[in-house]
Amino acid sequence: MKRQFLGLLARVYVLQFAFEVPATVAMLADMLMEYGFQVDIGSVRPLLRALQMDGYIESVLRDGIGRVYLITERGREELRNSRSQLDQLYRRLHSRGDASEAAQG
């Protein structure tokens, strides 16, 4: 289950990165590693393929850079939905923690 959650979280991070800047697979792998994901280029490629198959990102060839990944309009919508769900989860986790601490105190 932990692996599935990390996979979903990695999808959100990649969508966010693709939203911010056109990025190569190496750049995306580096960005994920900066946020604590244990990945390499070989493990990021299947994730990118899945996101492309879902229509969330697209790849284009850029002169001097190679293949870069960009978010699509469908990907932007998915990112908005994912952010909303994460925000709701965050609020719920923090409100329950506060209520639990108050009851114990």
From TrEMBL:
One Pfam family in the UniProt entry: PadR
Coiled coil: none
Domain Transcription regulator PadR N-terminal: start-end pairs: 18-80
Protein name: PadR family transcriptional regulator
Species assigned in the record: Cupriavidus malaysiensis
Lineage summary: Bacteria, Pseudomonadati, Pseudomonadota, Betaproteobacteria, Burkholderiales
Domain of life of the organism encoding this protein: Bacteria
